[in-house]
Amino acid sequence: MASKSSITVLLGMLAMIGIGVAGCSVVNETQPPLGGPSGPGLSEPTVYAGGYCYNDKSVRIAGLWINGVWNGLASLDDTRDSTVNSLVVSGNDVYAAGFGTDSLGVQVAGYWKNGTWTGLPPLVAGGTACVQALVVSGSDVYAGGYSYDSSGVEKAGYWKNGSWNALTVPDSTQNSAVNSISVAGASVVAGGFTTSGG
Predict the structure, then answer these.
(1) Is there a domain that residue 128 lies in?
(2) Residues 43-62: tens digit of each pLDDT
(3) What is each CA distance from 197 to 67, 84, 91, 190, in whole angstroms?
(4) What is the pLDDT of residue 106?
(5) 91 neighbors 54 (Cβ within 8 angstroms)
(6) What are the residues whose beta carbons fall under 8 Å from the beta carbon of 155, sequence distance 6 or more?
(7) Which DSSP string do the residues of 13-63 spell out, in sequence order?
(8) Residues 6+ apart with CB under 8 A from 86
């Protein structure tokens, strides 16, 4: 199995040749390799990496690699970009979060669960939004990122099971976004940025 440092180097090399890798997860499997002997200590971990690849039309296609094998995800519009920004493996479910671009050119926030797309509502109908980070806690899905308001300002927040939760920032007229999210009990902790005016 590849070490963590060699996986990091590989992901960096992929980015240099036009393949974007946003996240990596290693999951220990309880099943032995196919065709191999069974027994304690014989299973290998499964490595998941999410991101995108360009197709022959220079369109970014969202997808993930499972043990190095590419699995493309369905696009909202095959002629427009989509990207995986965050990847979570929870039990037997694989969540790949980011955005898809619809036929009108609008960037839609959402995630794929086991390959099936779930779009998340923007603050303003037809507005740009994106998921930057995802966490699954029990049956709840928390997706952190941003959504543009009616003034064109990027607003930080997160969706919990599809419902938007805005986060306060020092200056609401400036752009902000969530880049990382974690859940501990009833507490949701989000990290990100806000720009300053002046």
Answers:
(1) yes
(2) 688 899 999 999 999 999 99
(3) 45, 31, 44, 22
(4) 97
(5) no
(6) 123, 146, 147, 148, 149, 166, 176
(7) HHHHTTEEEEEEEEEE-SSPPTTSPPSTT---EEEEEEEEEE-TTS-EEEE
(8) 22, 23, 50, 96, 97, 98, 131, 132, 133, 134
Domains identified in the chain, total number: 1
* Domain assignment of residue 36, yes or no: no
Give tens-digit pLDDT for 105-132: 999 999 999 999 999 999 999 999 999 9
Tokens of 125: 């109908």
The token duo for 197 is 């005016």
Six-digit token string for 192: 């990100």
Residue 35 lies in a domain: no
Paired sense of beta strands 154-160 and 163-166, if any: antiparallel
Q: Which residues of the chain have pLDDT under 50?
A: 1-18, 23-38
Owning domain of residue 129: 4-29+43-194
pTM of this prediction?
Answer: 0.80
